[in-house]
Design goal:
- This is Integrase catalytic domain-containing protein.
- The radius of gyration is 28 Å and the shape is elongated.
- It has 390 residues and is an alpha/beta fold.
- The strands form 3 sheets. It has a 5-stranded mixed β-sheet with strand order 7-6-5-8-9, with helices on both faces. Strands 1-2-3-4 form a 4-stranded mixed β-sheet. It has a two-stranded antiparallel ribbon with strand order 10-11.
- It folds into 2 domains: 126 residues, Endonuclease III, domain 1; 197 residues, Nucleotidyltransferase, domain 5 (2-Layer Sandwich), CATH 3.30.420.
- 27% of the residues are buried.
- It is built from 17 helices and 11 strands.
């Protein structure tokens, strides 16, 4: 018999007595990343689902709730919506930064647009209420939002196919920059509401033709129709010859009924308002910030269609800055939503759904004695950027 003990099998390692405690310890040590108490219970259950609780009723309740929640390797909590969309449940300490990112960083749009953007990537129990309060208390939005007034509701010429019609218009003049840009030339694809815009030096027919050739028709192909107002920059021979050469039917709005081009007029206002808020402290860089404002609008969901121009054009949602494997699970939008658009009953029904907006539009704003209000001062020297509120 050998005096040396037999060599132990390398694969037969002793079991670590603390192995099952590591996940629970991580949860306890992660106090800075706390969620609400109910979510903390759910996370603890997902970490150790077979742990005994005080009562069987608690176990059953947690099991039922936990079906719609997941954990990743870092113990971040996710919520599953309708078995097709996985979103991160942000930690309490991170939520203010997330609200700033989705609102301030994406054009300072309103409550519903901000909520729609946040809802695609994040969730927490009081998210909607916090979005509402954040937008309501946003200083830039308070100072630079338009004063509510009654304007004519626009009517749109119906379109049935993608790239069938572009509507085009000039915005400005703006403060002249180092690049000598004074205007924005904006075109809108009328089916998807996808905006294309460029800061330009001049508002003339040569600029219009260059823009249509370089930014529209060599990118998306020639459309059947082009809709514009009766300005000289659209009615010149150069524009007419260009449209004729590409077999595009150029349609004009009536001088007494500009609402025919209501879509581009509406988007004009949204783009300018967003640009004013984004460039509030740096007016001299408005042309540099234009692409940022355009991207924010392109990825903003329409209030009725519930889809962004990006989704309508490409069929998928844009990837977020923080790309995550679990979030990839819910990136692609369902075909049932696209079929809603392809049938085009969606935009036909839009006019029916638009009626409540008409009724809301006719309501007067109410101001009570003692309410704090903002006084708007109009300075005509610079139409776009010198609306000062104090």
């Amino acid at each position: 018999m050998s005096r040396y003990p037999p060599v132990q099998n390398e694969s037969s390692e002793e079991e670590d007595p603390f192995h099952n405690m590591y996940p629970a310890l991580l949860v306890e040590l992660n106090e800075r990343d706390q969620y609400e108490p109910e979510l903390m219970k759910l996370r603890a259950y997902l970490v150790k689902p077979h742990a005994e609780s005080e009562t069987e009723a608690n176990d059953a309740k947690l099991r039922k709730k936990a079906v719609n929640y997941r954990l990743d390797e870092q113990l971040n909590l996710y919520r599953l919506f309708r078995n097709e969309r996985m979103v991160l449940i942000s930690k309490i300490d991170d939520r203010q930064d997330i609200l700033m990112q989705v609102h301030n960083g994406h054009g300072h749009y309103g409550q519903e647009a901000t909520w729609s953007r946040l809802y695609k990537q994040y969730w927490w129990p009081t998210a909607y209420e916090e979005v509402k309060e954040y937008v309501r208390s946003c200083h830039e939005c308070q100072m630079l939002s338009n004063v509510p007034n009654k304007v004519a509701l626009h009517g749109n010429v119906p379109v049935n196919h993608l790239f069938e019609r572009f509507a085009i218009d000039y915005i400005g003049p703006f403060p002249m920059m180092k690049k000598k840009n004074k205007y924005i030339l904006l075109a809108v694809e009328c089916y998807s509401r996808w905006p294309v815009a460029k800061a330009v030096k001049y508002a003339n027919s040569t600029t219009t033709v260059d823009f249509m050739y370089n930014e529209l028709f060599t990118v998306f192909g020639a459309s059947k129709f082009l809709l514009s107002d009766n300005g000289l920059h659209f009615t010149g021979n150069e524009v007419e010859e260009f449209a004729k050469h590409l077999k595009i039917k150029h349609q004009y709005t009536s001088p007494y009924h500009p609402q025919t081009n209501g879509m581009v007029e509406s988007i004009n206002g949204v783009i300018v308002k967003s640009l004013k808020k984004t460039a509030r402290e740096h007016n001299e860089y408005w042309d540099t910030l234009l692409p940022t404002v355009l991207y924010a609008y392109r990825t903003k969901a329409h209030s009725i269609l519930k889809l962004s121009p990006y989704e309508m054009l490409f069929g998928v949602e844009p990837l977020g800055v923080d790309k995550d494997v679990l979030q990839e699970y819910g990136r692609k939008i369902g075909f049932e939503r696209l079929s809603y658009l392809q049938q085009r009953n969606g935009l036909q029904n839009f006019m029916v759904d638009y009626q409540p907006q008409v009724e809301a539009h006719d309501q007067e704003s109410k101001i009570n004695v003692g309410d704090q209000v903002l006084l708007l001062k109009h300075h005509r020297k610079n139409v776009v950027f010198t609306h000062v509120i104090k």
